[in-house]
Structures are given as structure tokens and as C-alpha cells.
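DM from R.C. (forwarded with permission)

"hey, sorry to bug you on a friday — could you get me a structure for this? deadline for the figure draft is monday and I only need the backbone to look sensible"
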Amino acid sequence: MNRTTLIWMRSVGLLLLCLPTLLLAQRPRPALQQAQNQPAPAATKLTYTTVEGDPLSARFYTLPNGLTVILSVNKGEPRIFTSIAVKAGSKYDPADNTGLAHYLEHMLFKGTAKFGSNDWAKEQALLNEVERLYNQYNNTRDEAKRKVIYRQIDSVSGLAAKFAIPNEYDKMLSLLGATGTNAFTSNEMTVYINDIPSNEVERWLRVESERFQQLVLRLFHTELEAVYEEKNISLDNDARRANEVLNLSLYPTHPYGTQTTIGTVEHLKNPNWGKIKDYFNKYYVPNNMAVILAGDFDPDATIQLVAKYFGTYQPKPIPAFTFTPEKPITKPIEHTVSGPDQEFLALGYRLPGKNHPDALALELAVMLLYNGEVGLMDLNLNQQQKVLESYAYLNTLIDYSTLYLNAKPRQGQTLEQVRDLVLAQLEKLRKGEFDETQIQAIVKNKKIDQLTGYENNRSRAMTLMYEFVTGSDWKNYVTRLDRMAKLTKADVVAAVNKHLPAKSYVVVYKKNGPKDQVVKIEKPAITPVELNRDQTSPFVQNIIESAPADIQPEFLDFDRDLQRGALGAIPVLSVINKQNQLFRLYYYFEMGGNHDRVLPLAVQYLEYAGTARYSPEELKKKFYALGCRYSVSTGNDATYVRLEGLQENFAEGVALLEELLANAKPDQAVLDEMIAGILKDRDNAKKNKNTILFQGLMNYAMYGEKNPFTNVLSIDELRALKAADLTALVAKLSRYEHQVLYYGPLAATDLVAELRKLHPVNEPLVPIPAETQFEHQETPSGTVLHVDYDMVQAQLLWLSKSKETYNPKLSPTIALYNEYFGGNMSSIVFQTIRESKALAYSTNSRYTAPRKATDPYYNRAFVGTQADKLQEAYAAMQELLNEMPQSDLAFETARKSLLNSLSTERTLRQDILFSYLEARRLGLDRDIRADIFRGVGQLQFSDIQNFQREYVSSQPHVLLLLGSKNRIKPEVLQNLGTVRTLTLEEIFGY
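My reply, with the result:
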């Protein structure tokens, strides 16, 4: 995933929506403090601290210059998740230059005097002139004069770019075998992340220590255009716009509300180089930063390396952040936002910050309100289908925290009615109308969440990072759940009544309709910059030449890595969990909606079903009390019944699940409400950009009008369904051919012995029904399938069906081609379209393998761009698809990156089981990664060049376009090809 996509990347106020599970709003929150002083190795003359009972066994160091270093060892695989955190988020932006912290984050990828330049002296002189011109530009108000100055900026920037070597940072990290190279900015922090092989710690530290020593505003105006695109994306996001309105009313004087992370249009159009440099010099100092590592390393040796490379940084005093406390909200504040996406309610309460004495009780209160299983909103609203969907989460920050409550209306339901239903659940909290025993159940399940999170290096590092940034005490984090378990109903009620007065909320009604007037950032005139792809700075050359010894790859051997058993004719595949006492159990059926269109509905009905012994609410509480969670999901060709939780409750959990599957109680009234919800969901799907483009339109292009996406029951068929028929279908499910998959502490023989008592097998098993086949249609070359949507951006997708079905011999070539051409930030596509031509914020191209051996490959290329840049973006991508540029350096970088990643990645835990299933679907009996590793080393550039010519450029393609007909000029549409504008009914089938 490249640095330019999704919310993780430079988020705008929604960071918590995409943090790991461990860091979601009501989830565990980390902290920083020492309990036991222990000496570090003598060479460093440092001490580290730990906390007794810390499940991460984290070591906390403070270098003499004030830099915090946090190390957590996890030997699961030879990789390390790295995080460099700076206490410098958007709340520290100058009020007249919002978006500064976020834009600075972008510039930290551009290099220094030592890398990113082939002649720093000449480049520096030109960059100084660019800075002078920007100062003149910012002080000029006459638009005609501003355009003249901007042309000068563009011209001088082009001259400076002749001495730039773009993306040398990304190239170096690719050479190291890093994955997930990224960064994000939020209210409190800017954080730079990587996932590196464990043998690359020193080279990574060399690169990072150089990177943070000097700010060079290289390729400034092309990167600024990428930020413009990011701003336009946010303007197309109804949820984000509603969130900004909500926050501004909650925080009318504090930067949490007055300043968005991405900044205002006006400030983005007038960047101030001096203030960017001042910000860097003020906040990017060691006593305001932390280096955090989680993974496979020697902590004693690693701290010496960190001290070696970061120990010379000079500390500076950090300006104290001060603010005037917000005035209390004494009556509801209401707003309405309009846009093309589905309707929803967004409601918020202002709460005290993370380190307030009542913070823990308020966190527990939010989990009693909503925890995804048995909270008041879960049971009273979602389970009873009183709204289409509702949830709550706590955004915990330093100065204040915010309780967000969101809900979607059912058909015919007003947003005001939804508001009253949500507020009624909060009133129950105030009155103590909740089951106090749920406190212990919540604590148990949160501990399970922690265990699950600690399997993952990313979760470990991000937990530690968050506590550093918020200035919390790590001992408080370690003891947090034990302290929470001691809280009583009275504690919760007191905290809620104190901090959540009934009328102290802000509500935003997001309605469907014409978008509120939005000011887009117009396309500036930018001359493409030179890429200098095959140039290398001395610093990078030295990094290349100092490669460490390789780590030997380890690939799956299914005979070795899987334990096998059988329940009669049912295969049982298992992997032993040696890390903790959690289990994950799956019943896997090679059967889905393409085999039986009613099956997805039967599975969905289980969410609302009880049994003869338990009501639906009692059943959910029973599972939750056991520390077990179940789900049943079905796709086009597969169905999974999943149960996970504490191994000590395995038998009771499985027995309860079996009872539900065999004896789900039919209730026609419940089913009728579910059907009404499905119809509303279908209506909402037609308002969702991603569903329209990547599901509806793509399926239409691949298969035609009749396709897996439209293979659903009609309205009449839905309304004719009987609850008893659905429960009968679910009861029959276990009689179909299937497999049992298990990851947990039990050995195979013990597992089978347990399952014989718990999972009865009635033989002979029923064969899987025949699957409805959808024929992949030939790509209609020269055709543009367009859907009109009210949006600032335009999204363009190239789609081409290959003449080949799955061929494992092509796998090494495809892997290297994707790595080189379009799969990451160092790729040809990203470098050309974003870095050189500034035509898109997100862009990629991949040749994708099928899920099944009998299906074809597809080539997909994507550009998300401003509507007024569509023609240029199309031409740029089409040129690359027609003839791939050659760069020997980029090719070798791609090869080394791929080999390093393959050498150090490990397939672990339940992923071993799913890798086996994936291989079987493709007709393989081995781990295909071994083939790729052996083959990539033998390939030359001519191999991937010939591959593109044969399988990509010579193949016909269809263009899928999502954009506003009012923003895209008719002549631009005509230049793309023969345009066919489809209705939503045509692509959704209803």
C-alpha cells in the first residue's frame, strides 16, 4: 500500500478509524513510565526502565539529548515494525498556516543535501530563488500578478528539479526490503512508519538519522499539488465534511475544531516556506521525538545503534502549548450537511482529556454503550433493528476527548428519530440502567483484544507510540484493565452524569441531496519535472554497497506446517498456537451466493436469531461472557463459520455455536425487519463511490449485465422469504461437504477428540450444489463506461482481461513486473504520474492473479485526479501502459526489494491455513512464493518488458469512469473513447 492512499496516509481527523484494533476509540490506550531501573550495556552508559507485568516487555530509554527510545522484542518473524513519532500534529499549526504539519510530513520524504540531489550547491541556489518567489507570491493579492509569479515558480522549480533525484528515500527503503513505508499526521502527532527486515536495523537508522537532520523543500510545488488532490478527496467525503462541522461546534476556540489536519483551501494555496522551516526547527528535535521498534532484534545491540545515529541530535526547548478552556455547551447545537452519499447522524460530546482522573470510567462507559456485541446500542438499537446501524467510539486526545455517536436511518425514518433513539441509550447510562456484570465481561474481552494485538508488531509499536505522544504513564496502561475491573456501576454513573449532561451535545444531520457549496482547488500550471531515474547520490550508493548478510527465506511446506485429522469424511486442518491461549475455529464450505442465492440471507439472519433456550440478546451475552465471538459470512463461492476466543472455553463456545446453527429460532417479524434493512442498504450502496466503481461497474465490465454482483434476490423474492426456511437452511449447513480449520493450543489428535463430541457428522455428506457460472466477457476495447456522480475528483480505472488463465510459471515475472511498474511509491507509474507530472494523489497499476485456476488474469490501472486534469492523467497512464520506460536502477531496486521481502516475510498463525486453501483453489500443492523467489533472480528487464508488451499493452482495455458530467468537459470524455453512461439501475441490477 503506498503512502498516498487511504486514511492511514495523511489522515484528516479520522486517524482512530484506521488504527490497529488495539487502538480503536474504546480500546486499550497506551502510556509511558518506568518502574524498574536497569543498566543498559556499558558501551551506551544508558539505563532503561520497564514495568512489572508488562505483556510487551518494553524497555524505555532516554538518550542524553532527550530522545525517547522504546524497544519491544517479539521473535515471531525476522522483521521489525518501526515508528518515529514527533509530538507535532495539526493542533500546533499556526492559525494562519493550517495544514503545515501535514505538509511538512510530505516533505520529509524528499531527502536532504546528502540524498535526493545530484548537485546540492546548484540545486540549493535555485531552491533559494523558489523560496523568494513564494514569499512574493504570498504577499501579492492581484490574481493576474499571482499567476505571473506562479509561472516563475514553476520555471525555476523545473530548473531545480534537474538536480533532484526524486524518491531516493523510497528507493532506499525498497532496497532494504521495507514494506508499508508511510506516515500520518493527526491532531497531536506526526508519525513515520516502516516494516523492515531484522537484519536492516543499522541501514534503516542511517537513512532515518540523515532524513531528520535537515529539511529540504525539494520538488515543493509538485508535492503541493498532491496535497491539493488530497484536499479535493476530503471535499468529496461527506463523512469527513460532517466531522469537520461537528468538531468546530464542539471546539469553537481550540485547534481540535478550528484547524483541520489538512488545512484550509486558502492556506494551501499560500504556503509559507519560512513558517514550515520554523515548525521543523521548533518541533523536530530529539527531546520531542521517539524511536520505537517492535520485532526481532537484540535490544542491547539495537540501543547502541540508535544512540550512534541519533545521539548527536541537539535538543531545544519545546514551546508549551496553551489554550483557553472551551465554554460548556448548555443546549444542543444542530447542523445539516448535504451531499450525494447516504444519510447518517453524527453526534458528539466534549469530554476531558486522556489523563483526566475520570478518563478510565468514561472509557468503560463508552464500552457499556457500544462494544460491537452487547452494549446498549448493540442490543437495543442494532439487535432490535431500530436503526440501520449505530456505533460509538471515544477519540481520546490530550486536551479533550470526544465521544462520537453515529447512526444510519432505516427506510422512512427521520434523522431526528434516530437522534432520539441514540440519546435514549445515553440516558440509560445516566440512570444506571445496564447490567453491572457486563463490566467484568468487557474487561475479559478487552484482555483478549490485547492478546490478539500483541501477536502483531504493528499493534505493539503503535500502542507504545500513542502513549509516548500523549505523555501517559506506561504503568497506567499495563494496569489499566485491572483497574477498570474494580470500577462499579456507581463509578460509571457518576462519571457519565458529571461529564455527559443531557443537552451538552452537537449533532450533524448528514442528508442526501445536492452537495453543499464546495470550493475546489483549481489545477495550477505545472511543468513536469525530470525524474533522473538512473542517477544515484553518493549517500544512497554507500547504502547500497553496505548491504548486510541475507536472511534465508522460509516458505510453507503444507505437509510439515499443517497437522491433519478427520471427522469421518470431514478434513480437519490445524496449526498449533504456541504464543498464547487463544483459538480460532472455522467451518469452511466451498459454497456461497453463486451456489444458492438464499444462503447469504440465511447466514445474515443468524445475527438476529435466538434459540429455544436463549433469546438473541441472551445468546450474545452468553458468548461475550465466555470471551468468545462468532460470525458467519458468505461470499460468492465460500462460506465461513468462525468462532474465536479463550481456549479454556472452547468446548462451551463450540457447543453454543452448534446449538445456534442447529436450532436457530425462526421469527418472521424479525426477518421482515431484516429485509427492510437490506433494501435500505441497497439504496445506500448506490450512493457509495467505492461500491459503484470497484464493485458494480467493475463486475459489469468483467461479466456484463448478469454478473456475481447483480446475482441477488429481487425485491419480490426477498419479501417472499420465510424465516423457517432460512433457519432450516442453516441447520442443514453442517451436512454439506466442508472442512474444519483450527488455530489454537490443541494438538491435532486432541482437537479431533474434542470435535467428535462437539461437531456431529451425519454421513453421507450432502454434495455442494452446482455453482452458477458467469462468463468473463471479452474486453470491449475503446469503450468508456461512465457513471455520473457529484464529486470534485474523477476516478478512472483501466480494465483488461488477459488471454491467459492461471499459470504458475508466470508468477515470478508478474511479481517483478508489478513491483517495478505500478505497485508502490518507487514504481514507474507513481514516479511519473504523481512525482513528475503531479497529476494524481493516488495512482497504481497491477496485473492481478485470479482466485481460481480456471479464471483469467486482469490488468488494472487506476488514477484518482481532479476533473480538470482528467485528459492529462489519462494520456500519462496510457503512455506508460503502451510502452514501459526502462530504468536499470529502478529494475534492480525492484528485484532486491522483492527478494528481501520474500526472504523475511513469514506466513504465521491462521494465515497458514488460508494460504493452503488459496493454493488449493489455484491447483497448487506448494507455497507459490518459493517459485517467485527462485525465479525473480533469473529475470532480466527484457523479460518484464516483453511481458508487458504481450499481456498488457497489446490487450484491449475498457475504461471505467466515475465523475461528475458537470465537471468533466464533453470533449475530454469524447477523447477517452466511445462513452456509455450507465444508470445505477443498470450496474446494480435493481
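R.C.: lifesaver. The chain has five domains: 15-116+166-317, 119-163, 333-455+464-512, 558-666+722-758, 783-988.
me: no worries. The chain is about 40% helix and 20% strand.
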